[in-house]
Design goal:
- The protein has 614 residues and is α/β, with parallel strands linked by helices.
- It is built from twelve helices and 14 strands.
- α5 packs across α7.
- The longest helix has 102 residues.
- The C terminus is likely disordered.
């Protein structure tokens, strides 16, 4: 059984009892947009291991992101799904501006940001924009929305302040800092220069050590290199001829050996066949002898026909087996005919045997000739190999010497380059003007224009009085009637923080700037808390005045009117006004097992996957 939230276009409200998973949903959303920290491990989430987030992309298509609650990479599936398929592709969780195979660059390119460079310090050094740099303008948890620090300087760390200023400037102007040329402070330049000089001197000393105490002059080495090249060319030609002769002999030996083996095998086959034919001839002789005996017996029986029986003396007319005379005659004739046929076959066999014997004799003679030829080739190879080895050794000796000479010449060339670099480093450093810094941050007119949009938002929410909003470039925060935002009570700070986030979306829409198009605010209407039950205590005077003004209803109504330009998720503990419930997609977490929806997670979790957003 999944734990899911379905979001509509425009205004979405999740409210209800504490400890029902509202803040967990905000954390899960942030996590699914590349946050490195998984949602807080709570008991209700133990049976779940994966988060699914459905997105509608700028081109209108829909995809689903899937990520393990343990963190790491994402899988993207086409369409809105809550189960893995075969058509997904992976995206890394770490920002890499040189690749589109990570979630950060995937989202930035879909939005139209692409690869943007922003200055990160006064020296003009730059980093590339990551989608996580936009996250503070999209996800505002409760502890951040009431904080005194500027919503723009979200990290609260001084070392990141310049970069965060320029992220805000990029959102408002659409201009990054790719045109800024980095500069280095004189002290750093001097230190870097001294370090380079020291390094070059070390390299020069190392080359001098390799050259030795009394190295040959460059001119001597050049002359030696020319002579070595000429010698190498001559030896290379001799070696090539020797190698060609050796290769030819080896090839000829292989061909002769193959011919010998083939001849030997053919002769052996013929001799085997002749032996078989000799056996067949013996069979022919035996058959002829047997048939001759049959023929002679038949002739004898035929000769006795018409005479008295030699056994019993019966006269011819008293003999009772006269019918067999014809059969004896037929047998006698058949034996004679078979003898003639076998004699013809034997004569044919004799001719074949004679031919095969001649061929076998020729093959044995060719085999002997090939054996003699192989012996000659072996002798030639024994003669050619030492010559080839000698040429090869000479070539290798010349090559080693040439490598030594070339290495020394290369050392001279490297030394020349280092000496040129050393002379460049001796040039005095250019003077930098006092206080000169890379031009970064928001300009006054743009900051004023943004402050006016914040003022319009507050007026639409019915903020008490006639709020005059200005932008403090130094603090990177708004002032209300000249008063710093941080000087107000928690509830007022929360509402002003929310106004800045909503105003940024409105500003970007009106001026055609890029914005992801959604805002998530956790407890922006903190002023409407119950003092006796809230950990934030009793209302201050400015909070009480804000609560008495009835801002809540107009707050929700205004966000509902902005449905065409953005999507809003408001998480609250207090009940929204009745009118607001009719304007939004509302999820109420009762915290009661038998009264509506208990919370983000079912009272009894039986599934294995969590879907805090879809």
């Amino acid at each position: 059984m999944g734990a899911g939230l379905a979001f509509d276009d425009g205004l979405n409200i999740v409210y209800g009892a504490s400890n029902t998973g509202k803040s967990y949903a905000v954390e899960a959303l942030n996590f699914m947009f590349g946050g490195s920290k998984p949602p807080e491990a709570i008991e209700e989430a133990v049976p779940y291991d994966r988060v699914w987030l459905g997105l509608r992309l700028p081109d209108g298509s829909e995809v689903t992101l899937s990520r393990s609650l343990a963190g790491h990479a994402f899988t993207v599936f086409p369409g809105l799904v809550t189960a893995p398929g075969d058509d997904g592709f992976a995206l890394g969780h770490e920002h890499d501006p040189k690749s589109d195979t990570n979630l950060s660059m995937y989202l930035l390119r879909l939005l139209g940001f692409g690869r943007k460079e922003l200055v990160k310090n006064a020296n003009g050094e730059k980093d590339t924009l990551s989608f996580r740099d936009l996250a503070p303008y999209l996800f505002t948890p409760e502890e951040i929305i009431i904080a005194k620090r500027s919503p723009i300087l979200a990290s609260g760390q001084h070392i990141f302040a310049t970069f965060e200023r320029n992220v805000f400037k990029l959102l408002l102007t659409g201009i990054d800092d790719s045109a800024v040329t980095p500069s280095v402070p004189p002290k750093m330049l001097a230190a870097a220069k001294a370090g380079k000089i020291e390094l070059v001197d070390e390299w020069l000393a190392g080359i001098d050590r390799e050259l030795g105490e009394a190295p040959p002059s460059r001119e001597e080495l050049v002359e030696q290199a020319v002579r070595l090249e000429e010698s190498l060319e001559g030896v290379r030609s001799d070696l090539a001829h020797a190698q060609d002769r050796l290769d030819g002999l080896v090839t000829e030996r292989r061909r002769t050996r193959d011919a010998r083996d083939e001849t030997r095998a053919r002769a052996a086959d013929l001799e085997l066949t002749l032996a078989q034919f000799a056996t067949l001839d013996e069979v022919y002789v035996s058959d002829i002898e047997r048939l001759q005996a049959v023929e002679e017996g038949g002739a004898l029986l035929l000769a006795m026909t018409g005479h008295e029986c030699p056994v019993c003396g019966a006269p011819p007319d008293a003999q009772v087996h006269k019918a067999h005379v014809e059969e004896i005659g037929r047998s006698h004739g058949a034996a004679a005919a078979e003898i003639r046929k076998i004699r013809r076959d034997r004569a044919d066999l004799a001719g074949v045997i004679l031919s095969l014997r001649a061929e076998a004799t020729g093959l044995r003679g060719r085999e002997a000739s090939l054996v003699e030829e192989l012996s000659d080739l072996d002798a030639s190879l024994d003669e050619a190999r030492p010559a080839e080895r000698d040429f090869r050794r000479r070539y290798e000796r010349f090559g080693i010497e040439q490598d030594r000479v070339n290495r020394l010449l290369d050392l001279y060339r490297r030394r020349d380059r280092l000496m040129v670099e050393r002379s460049r480093l001796d040039v005095p450093l250019p003077r930098r003007k006092p206080g000169e810094k890379a031009a970064t941050g928001l300009d006054g007119p743009t900051a004023h224009a943004f402050a006016q949009v914040v003022q319009r938002v507050l007026e639409a929410w019915g903020f008490p009085g006639k709020p005059a909003v200005s932008f403090d470039l130094e603090r990177q925060d708004i002032r209300l009637d000249g008063k710093e935002r941080s000087a107000n009570g928690k509830g007022v700070r929360a509402l002003l923080h929310a106004a800045m986030k909503v105003a940024l979306l409105v500003y970007c829409h009106e001026r055609g700037r890029v914005h992801p198009g959604f805002v998530v605010l956790d407890t922006p209407l903190l002023t409407y808390r119950e003092p006796l039950r809230s950990r934030h205590g009793a209302l201050s005077a400015d909070e009480q005045a804000l609560k008495d003004s009835g801002v809540a209803g107009r707050f929700y109504a205004h966000l509902a009117r902005l449905s065409e330009i953005g999507q809003f998720l408001i998480v609250e503990n207090s009940d929204p006004p009745a009118d607001a419930l009719a304007l939004a997609n509302v999820q109420l977490f009762t915290g009661e097992p038998d009264d509506g929806r208990y919370g983000l997670f079912p009272r009894r979790t039986g599934g294995q996957e969590a879907a805090p957003a879809s």
